[in-house]
């Protein structure tokens, strides 16, 4: 087989969808696995549906996930330009070639006429299709109408009988009767090609060997293969990926949840987790392994292990992956991802900030890197997404001013308060203020006073954090430092009635 080349060819009509990300990922993985190249091509021939910031969004998100293209907009390459609106002359020439060969024809039907035809077909419950009125116009008539500047499109001539057979790399042999295939418009009257012409011409000129795309393009494939035959070109291999489904097995839709990559990114999912999760929506490694980095996937991926059945987009599974990646990533790596979220809260990560509890400068807290990393280390096991570090970590940045009423009711009684008071004094004269010493001290104190350790741990936690649950309270005290911890205990003792 010639050198493998794949492409991701989004139409810039909106933000990158998770389905689009999967298509990009599989194309990337297949190319990398086989030592080939992966291209990005922007299919912007439908000018009415363009969303201006879309190309940038697609490129940003590919970059964020680590799916790097070898050739494409902004990067160049031997087969450029890689944006279809910059290739209009090329499509014109090829459409003309087909007209000259008698394999495509000018159609002068007005949109009103086409609409009437469609209405009639619908009334008769027939599938809408062009009635081929212009297919057999004489050469002279066509020449005359063109000379008169009558607007026209170019349509491909689909055989009236027979069927197209091909083998899909995922679905196996497919046959579609030509009767069910419309005389597709190839060139529109505005001089832009349709997707169908542009995709074939570009895949050929860009030497694409494998077209891996969503199942929704399967019905278009016979037209594409016919075009390859009409041009006398060798068609690439085709692989149509299974649909992405909602948990109720309907087609994945916005109505049931988030569908854009941005949504997940903004909600604090890590790119590693999203990529791992998306990789398994349709593909499996052939065994029970689930955790794969992008790099590992480039060694494992194969089309043989892509299934035909729709893949369910299960958000709980994505949460599980995210949790796994949070646990496994280094504190520094998580900090890099979480820094923008911290900064939104006014928590500025400042390499020059003094070690220990943050200091307030103006409206901002200046946070030492090591301090931030210790917090991440403590919260990591409990976080599902990045914002959890903010919502669960607030007490590392400000002392609690309120205390969980249930916690007060359960653990804060006059009998215990006396012990907490005494322990606070003991803490203040400890030779070392670290989690180990603190915990040892409390445990010994409990034994001496015949108390259950929980009866002391709980009020201390409440005083330090305001909550009844969280990571080890002694670790939290170690991170907060002696001064801050003692101040919090004193405040709680004074405030909680
Ligand atoms: N431009 C098409 C899309 O937006 C690409 C389909 C294909 O890969 O051929 O999905």
Primary descriptors:
45% helix; Rossmann fold; 20 helices; three-stranded antiparallel β-sheet; single chain; three-stranded mixed β-sheet; binds glutamic acid; 4 domains; 497 residues
Q: How far from one another are the termini? A: 79 Å
* CATH architecture heading of the largest domain: 3-Layer(aba) Sandwich
Bulk shape: elongated
Number of strands: 14
Helix content: 40-55%
Query: What percentage of amino acids are in beta strands?
Result: 5-15%
Mean pLDDT: 96
Give the strand order of the largest sheet, numbering strands 1, 2, ... along the chain.
3-4-7
CATH superfamily of the largest domain, please?
HUPs
Given the structure, what is the number of helices?
20
Category from helices, strands and their pairing:
mainly alpha
User: What is the CATH class of the largest domain?
Assistant: Alpha Beta
Which ions and ligands are bound to the chains?
Answer: glutamic acid
- What is the number of domains? 4
Radius of gyration: 32 Å
Please outline the major beta sheet: 3 strands, antiparallel
Low confidence ranges: none
Query: Could you name the CATH topology of the largest domain?
Result: Rossmann fold
């Amino acid at each position: 087989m010639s050198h493998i080349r794949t492409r991701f060819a989004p139409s810039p009509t909106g933000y990158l969808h998770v389905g689009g990300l999967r298509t990009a990922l599989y194309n990337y993985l297949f190319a990398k696995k086989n030592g080939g190249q992966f291209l990005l091509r922007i299919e912007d021939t439908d000018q009415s549906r363009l969303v201006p910031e879309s190309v940038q969004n697609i490129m940003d998100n590919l970059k964020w996930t680590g799916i790097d293209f070898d050739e494409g907009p902004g990067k160049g390459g031997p087969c450029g330009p890689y944006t279809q609106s910059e290739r209009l002359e090329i499509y014109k020439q090829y459409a003309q070639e087909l007209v000259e060969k008698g394999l495509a024809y000018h159609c002068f039907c007005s949109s009103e006429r086409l609409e009437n035809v469609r209405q009639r077909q619908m009334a008769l419950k027939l599938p809408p299709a062009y009635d081929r009125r212009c297919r057999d116009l004489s050469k002279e008539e066509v020449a005359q109408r063109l000379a008169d500047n009558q607007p026209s499109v170019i349509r491909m001539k689909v055989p009236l009988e027979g069927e197209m057979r091909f083998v899909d790399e995922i679905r196996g042999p497919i046959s579609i009767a030509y009767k069910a295939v419309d005389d597709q418009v190839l060139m529109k009257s505005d001089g832009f090609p349709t997707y169908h012409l542009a995709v074939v011409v570009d895949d050929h000129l860009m030497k694409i060997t494998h077209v891996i795309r969503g199942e929704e393009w399967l019905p278009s494939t016979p037209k594409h293969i016919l075009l390859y035959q009409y041009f006398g070109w060798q068609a690439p291999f085709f692989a149509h990926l299974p649909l992405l489904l909602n948990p109720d097995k309907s087609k994945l839709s916005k109505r049931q949840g988030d569908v854009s990559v941005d949504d997940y990114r903004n909600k604090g999912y890590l790119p590693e987790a999203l990529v791992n999760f998306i990789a398994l929506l349709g593909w499996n490694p052939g065994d029970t392994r689930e955790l794969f980095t992008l790099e590992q996937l480039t060694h494992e991926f194969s089309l043989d292990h892509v299934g035909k059945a729709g893949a369910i987009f299960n958000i709980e599974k994505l949460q599980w992956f995210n949790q796994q990646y949070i646990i496994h990533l280094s504190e520094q790596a998580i900090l890099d991802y979480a820094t923008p979220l911290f900064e939104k809260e006014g928590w500025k990560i400042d390499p020059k900030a003094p070690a220990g509890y943050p200091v307030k400068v103006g409206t901002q807290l200046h946070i030492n890197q090591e301090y931030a990393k210790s917090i991440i280390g403590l919260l990591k096991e409990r976080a599902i997404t990045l914002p959890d570090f903010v919502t669960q970590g607030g007490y590392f940045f400000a002392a609690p001013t309120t205390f969980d009423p249930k916690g007060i009711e359960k653990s804060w009684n006059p009998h215990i308060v006396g012990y907490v008071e005494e322990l606070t004094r003991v803490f203040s004269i400890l030779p070392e203020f670290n989690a180990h010493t603190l915990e040892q001290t409390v445990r010994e104190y409990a034994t001496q006073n015949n108390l259950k350790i929980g009866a002391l741990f709980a009020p201390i936690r409440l005083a330090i954090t305001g909550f009844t649950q969280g990571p080890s309270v002694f670790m939290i005290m170690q991170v907060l430092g002696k001064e801050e911890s003692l101040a919090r205990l004193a405040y709680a003792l004074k405030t909680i009635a």
